[in-house]
Write a structure and sequence with these properties.
Layout: E1 3-5, E2 12-14, E3 16-19, H1 34-46, E4 51-53, H2 61-68, E5 76-81, E6 84-85, E7 88-89, H3 92-106, E8 111-119, H4 124-140, E9 144-151, H5 160-165, E10 173-177, H6 185-188, H7 190-196, E11 199-203, H8 213-225, H9 241-244, H10 252-261, E12 268-271, H11 276-287, H12 293-303
Parallel strand pairs: 3-4, 3-12, 4-5, 5-8, 8-9, 9-10, 10-11, 11-12
Antiparallel strand pairs: 1-2, 6-7
The structure holds NADP nicotinamide-adenine-dinucleotide phosphate.
NADP nicotinamide-adenine-dinucleotide phosphate binds at residues 19-24, 53, 117-118, 150, 152, 175, 203-207, 211, 253, 270-275, 278, 281-282.
Length: 312
């Protein structure tokens, strides 16, 4: 494993982080039980991963708690509370309650990075007025170490919330959607995180459009229609085949993780799965060298202007 400093937190974290959400939620989403989920976390720790990202909303905090029992001091734990949905916004008391429940499920008395989860641009002012002061009180009380915020990339594909939040500098860590289909964080997010020395966690490196060829074709169609990709630059039937055909690339998923890991400003690339074999493959991909320049140039030519899809 390789380790990197997570911005101004000073935490030394593995470049691969275990994501306990996503479509798999450590296998819970496909019918596996908590023992299985905990085994995925243990396998991650055994591979040298020391950054584990979970959330109240994923239902995986208890499995993480079971796996880290007796190893708590080797692990950086990241969890989250949602600031609310629609008009129903979370109060400071609600945040406190959510944090207390997370601490119990995780079996710990302190969470290293505690995020406001999936924040939209519309929710951000409420977060600053009501929730950030509470997070700071909880930090002063020793219940959390660092403040984090994650964007709602499925709908905020152009990083509107983070572009507004980062100059205010309330958060030590951000979680940002980034992948080879939508590299817009390169211009809109990473220059700001680097300026403020904020730690970065990359999500959406691999979602459906990078694991299912029909989803990739549908995304491409959408991008051509939106005028963000030129039809002449791609093969509509197999838009990403040029990556897999390259002699220095093992698979599309491998290319997708290598693309994210070597982005300037990226610290931890999150990978979520319900399978130990996938986890091992993905860690190897995250540790592999950068993509060859001919591929990064071609990706830039095709997808360099995209900011309207998440790859979900
Ligand atoms: N707004 C937010 O705060 C937010 C939103 C999304 C995600 N997150 C966090 O970020 C983490 C990463 O999320 P993500 O969006 O990048 O998705 P992810 O959780 O990494 O999910 C990746 C998906 O691809 C599949 N996959 C992984 N490796 C594979 C392989 N080698 N071969 C075939 N399929 C593979 C997995 O299914 P299998 O189980 O079959 O491997 C999984 O469903 C999440 O787990 C979560 O912790 C946060």
């Amino acid at each position: 494993m390789k380790y990197v400093t997570l911005g101004r937190t000073g935490l030394e974290v593995s470049v691969a982080g275990l994501g306990c959400g996503g479509h798999s939620r450590l296998g819970l989403a496909t019918g596996k039980d908590e023992h299985h989920a905990a085994r995925i976390v243990t396998a991650a720790l055994d591979l040298g991963i020391n950054f584990i990202d979970t959330a109240r909303a994923y239902g995986t905090e208890r499995a993480v708690g079971a796996a880290i029992k007796g190893r708590r001091d080797q692990v950086i734990v990241s969890s989250k509370a949602s600031p609310g949905w629609g008009d129903e916004l979370l109060s400071a008391a609600g945040l406190r309650e959510s944090l207390e429940k997370s601490l119990v499920r995780l079996g710990t008395d302190c969470i290293d990075v505690f995020h406001l989860h999936g924040v939209t641009a519309a929710q951000y002012p409420h977060c600053v007025a009501e929730l950030v002061p509470e997070l700071k009180r909880q930090r002063d009380a020793g219940k959390i170490r660092f403040l984090g915020i994650t964007e709602r990339f499925v709908s905020d594909t152009s990083h509107e919330m983070l572009a507004a939040a980062l100059p205010d500098d309330h958060f030590d860590v951000v979680m940002v959607g980034h992948n080879l289909l939508n590299p817009s964080a390169r211009k809109r997010v990473f220059p700001l995180t680097m300026r403020h020395n904020v730690g970065t966690l990359i999500m959406f490196a691999v979602r459906r459009a990078l694991t299912h060829s029909d989803a990739a074709r549908a995304v491409l169609e959408q991008l051509i229609e939106a005028g963000q990709v030129a039809a002449a630059d791609t093969d509509a039937q197999a838009p990403l085949a040029f990556l897999v055909d390259h002699p220095e690339v093992a698979s599309l998923i491998e290319a997708a993780y290598r693309f994210c890991r070597h982005e300037a400003g990226a610290h931890v690339v999150l990978t979520g799965t319900g399978s130990v074999a996938h986890l091992e493959e993905n860690v190897a991909a995250i540790l592999a060298p950068p993509l060859p320049p001919d591929l990064t140039n071609r990706l830039g030519q095709i997808f360099g202007r995209v900011d309207s899809v998440s790859g979900n």
